[in-house]
């Protein structure tokens, strides 16, 4: 291989790394959106600890917020899928408590998709 070949290879590697970094980077979440039957009932800041309770058809769901993350701590649903989801930390992450018609989504300035339906 000659010097020009190494230069082309180096440029290709740098371009690939730059593209990967910019395309697969997610924004830092700013808010936790709590929805009941598809309607936003709370927009919680991820700057400070907080708890929010929302009543759905099956009972009360507890949303817990810590700096930079949020989770469904307690839900009356039978299978507890949204509780097992654990702490959400990435923008666009969602925990859906379908039987209780409640969802938790981390929101950032730039959305990864247009809408969410369940």
TrEMBL record:
Q: Which domain of life is it from?
A: Bacteria
Query: Which InterPro entries does this entry report, sorted A to Z?
Result: NusG_2_sf
| Name the record gives this protein | Uncharacterized protein
